[in-house]
## 1
Amino acid sequence: MDSPYDVLGLDADADDAEVEQAYRRRVKEAHPDRGGSAEEFQRVREAYEVVVSGRAAPPTAEPDEADGPIDEWGTDAPPTARNGARADAAGRAGGTAASGARGSGQTGADGSAQTTTRVEYLNYEVVADHGWEVDDPDLFETAAGADLDHEDYGLFLAEPGETLLEAAEARGFAWPFACRGGACANCAVAVVDGELDSTVDNVLTDDLVDRGFRLSCIGRPVTEELRVIYNVKHLPGLDDLRLPADRFERARADY
C-alpha cells in the first residue's frame, strides 16, 4: 500500500512549503496533457488531500484496524482530525495558518449538519488571460497542471460555519469584497461544483443565481467539496451590481 507521502515523493516530516512544491511538481508530471494519465493525476490529488487534511500516516507506519476502518491510504481518521496534525490546509494552498481543526460532524444553530469543506479555487483573471472557457468540464484539471501562483489556483479547507470569504481570508488570501452584507456583487464567485448556502437576502437576481453565481461574503459551504471561480465581479450582470470598495473602508475608518 503506497503512502500518500510516497506518491508525492516526500518524507513524513516535510514542512508546508515542501508539501506544496511536491504537489505542484507531481500534479504537472501526472497531468494527462503532459504524458501522465487520468488515474495517476487523480491519485496525486487524493494523496495531497490526505496529507493536508491530517489523515496521512508516516510511510513506515502500519495501520491499526482496531482504531477503525482503514481506507486505501492506510488511514483511519476523519479528514479533519488525525491527532490534530496538519488539520488545516492553509500552508498547502499558499495561505497563512488558521485555527485548528474541528470535526466534520458539527451541528449549526438551526440544527443543520455542518461539514469541513475542501475548497478548490481559481482566479477568473487567469481563466481570461489563458483563453480558457469557464464551462470547460476540465477547467480545474487544466489549471492544476498550469503552474499557477498560489493566489490564482489552489486548495484550502473551510471550517463549519465560515463563509467562503472568511475561510479564504483566514488562510491569507485577499479576495475581492466591499459591503460584506450581500448588498453588492464585489465578492461574487461562480460555483462550478458543490453548494454555498445563500439563504440571506442579497443583491443577486434570480437569473444570476440560476447561472451559478453566489456571494462569498454570505455564502457558507455546505458540501464536502466545492469548486469556485472567484474575482468574477466584472462579468456581465455582475458589473452593474458592484460598489466602490473604498467607500466601506472609509466608513470603517471613520467609525
Note: The domain at 109-255 is CATH 3.10.20.30 (Ubiquitin-like (UB roll)).
## 2
Amino acid sequence: MSAESDNCPDPAGLNVYESVAEAIGHTPLVRLNRATEGIAAAVYAKLELLNPGGSVKDRAARQMILDAEASGELRPGGTIVEGTSGNTGIGLAVVAASRGYRTIVVVPDKTSVEKVAFLRAYGAEVKVTPGALPTHHPDHVRNVARRIADETDGGWLAGQYDNPANPGAHYVTTGPELWRQTAGAITHFVAGIGTGGTISGTGKYLKEVSDGAVRIIGADPETSSYSGGDGRAYYVESIGHFVHPDSVEDIWPESYDRGIVDEFITVSDRQSITAARTLARTEGLLVGGSGGTAVAAALRVARTLPADAVVVVLIPDSGRAYLSKYFDDDWVARFGFADRAESVDRAVEDLLGEITTPVVVPSNVTVGEALSLLGSRAELPVALPRDRTGAQVVPEILGSVTAEELRDVDPSAPLTAHISPPLVVVGAFESVDSAVRRVGSDRRTVVVAGSGVLVGLLEPGRLSR
C-alpha cells in the first residue's frame, strides 16, 4: 500500500501537484501557546483541517479509492457510495471529482447543514437518513449505503468502517509525517476515535518507530462505548461510538485496533464545545467539535507532564463545517451549553422551581402505557427506551405525544406510529425573554436543556407568566 507522492517532480524544478489528490496530507504542526498557559510540556496541533476537503478523512478517502482502482473494484465511470457523518464523504467527493467518478453519500440527520452543502458543492448526491437507528435497521446509514452500492451499476462501497485502507492511509502518511515534523521527539499522540482508522494507523506507526515509547491517547465523548460509556447519544459529530438501545449487538469497526490505544480521556459535550470556541479566540484556530474534544483531552494530559514532553493533538476538521451549531451563540444557548450571563436577571432555570426528574415516554411502549404516563399532562417528550437511572440526553428525544391525539387510538397499538414532532428546546441558562422569542406562541410544553441534558419541562403558558 502506498499513497501518491508528496509532490510531483517537475523538469523545471517547480514544486507542484498534478492533481488535488496529491495535495492531500503533509499538513502543518502548530504549537499551542495561549491555550497552554501554565503548562510546561509542548503541545502541537496537527492541522488536518488544511487538507483540500477540510478534514483528516481526505487521507483515507484517497487511499481507499487508489486501492479500489488497483484491485479493479472501482472502474472508470464507476460510482462511489459511502455512509458517513460527512467528512469521509467530502473527501471521497473531492478525489472523485478529480478522477471522474460519480459520488453518492448517505448521511445521518445529525450531520451539520454545512457538511451537506459542501458535499453537494462537490457534486455528490446526498441521501439523509435518521441517525438514531440500531445498526441492523434497514434504514441505518451504512445499510442504506450498502443497498445503493449493490443496486447501482458500477457501484463501489468505500466501507470506511471495515476498509484496511483507512488505517493504512495513516500508517503510511500521518504517522511518518509526525515523526519527521517532531524529529522523533513526540512523546504523546492524542486523537478522537470515529471509525478508528486515524488513531489505529498513526498510533501503530508511532509505536513501531519509537519502540513503544510514544503513548497513544484516545479522546472520547463521555457516553461513547469505546471508553466504557453506555452508548447514549451526544452532540459532537464524527467521533465516539453510539449504541442504539435496540441494537442486537455492539459492533465496532474493523478499522479500529483497540490494542493501539494506551489510555482514554473522556470529554463532555460542553467541554468539547467550549474548547473549540476558546481555541478560535486564543489561537486563531477554528476547529470542529471533535477537535475541541481532542484539545481538551490533550491539555488535560499535558498538565501532568514535564517540560521535555511533546504532545501532538490531531485536529480532524474545521469549525467552518459547524458555524450553525457550535459557533452559533443561539444554538449554544438553546441546548444549555452557555453559562448564565451576569446580565440575566431572570433565566429559564428560575422557572423550574424544585428540580424533579422530568417524565419522558419511551418510544417502545403502547398507546395505553403512554396515556398512563401522560396522566393529567397535555403532552410529553418521547425518547429512545433507555435505563432511566441515567440522564435523558436531548439528542435522544425523538418527538412528542399529546393526550388529545392518542385519545381515540387503540390502547394496545404501538406508540411508534403516533409520535408527533419534537417539542421546542430552550436553554436553562438563557434569559426568559430570549426563550420566549424563540418559542413564539406559549401554547406547547417546552423542553429545558442544560449542557445537552433534559433538566425540566415547562407546561404551556409557564414561560410567559
Note: The domain at 335-458 is CATH 3.10.580.10 (CBS-domain).
## 3
Amino acid sequence: MSGGEAAAEARPEVVSVACACCGLTEECTPAYVKAVRERFGGRWVCGLCGEAVEDEIGRAGRWISTEEALSRHMSFSESFRAAGPPLDTGENMIAAMRQLLRRSLDSPRATRSSPSSPRRSVEEDGSSGGARRSLARSGSYLSTAAR
C-alpha cells in the first residue's frame, strides 16, 4: 500500500448537506448528519440555526417542542430571506442589531447562586492592607532573543 492510499483510507467519508433553515451547505460525516437529523425530526440543521432553535425554546416562556421551535425559526429565516437585499447595508446592520438587542432583552435571565469567577478574601490572599499584587517584569524577551 502506498502513502497516498493510506492517507485516503485514514480520511473519513464526508457528505455535503444543506441546512433546512438557512440553506448553508457544509461537509460532514454521515454519522454526524444522522445524529443531527435525529435531533431535529429528520431535517439537517447547521450549528448556528441549531443554537437559534435552542434559544427559541428558552425564550418561549412555556415548554415547546424542538419541532415547534424549529418551525418558528424556519419561518423567521424564510421571512428574513424574502425581505430581499437591503438598499443601505448600514441601515440593515442597525436593524439587525436592534432586533438582536430586543430579543436578548426579552430572553429570561439565568440566575447564578455564586459568581462565575471565585474571589479571594484578603486573609486567603496573604496580602496586607488590601492592596492588589502586581506582576513584576523580570526582563524583556527581545533582549535575550537578540543574543
Note: The chain has a mean pLDDT of 77.
